[in-house]
Amino acid sequence: MSHCLKSSLLAALVFWQLSMSVLAVQENYVFANPQQHQVFKELTQELRCPRCQNQSIAGSNATVALDMKNKVYAMLREGKTKQEIVDSMKQRYGEFVHYQPPLNAVTSILWWLPLLFVIAGLVMVFRRKPTVAIDNDALIKAQQLLEKDK
User: Which of 2, 53, 69, 95 gets the most CB atoms within 10 Å of its CB?
Assistant: First the structure.
């Protein structure tokens, strides 16, 4: 076999392998109506991949993210509401899986801390000591003294 033929076969094999991996990631979900598809898109954006941590399951190709997407799809097909699906995912993976944390005693610090910083900053700005007014007569006398020393 010639070198050119071997190179061509190797290139064809590499391209074939790459195309198969692209096809493996492609997902085909069929929905009963456009609203179901919209809810699926919203949920896959709102749910965080437990393995990737800062990536939604919509953008992750991790096995756990694919499993979660399939579970969301199956639950939607069963007629579950968006909140029921979120609650199920939270129960299985913990509160971390949802990008929108609830307001409770633990997370209230995260919700109120920025507001407290803004209020503290405003208090500091307005409680600042007023600047001392410069007496024009004293300024003129000081300029005259400087000129006299020249």
Answer: 69
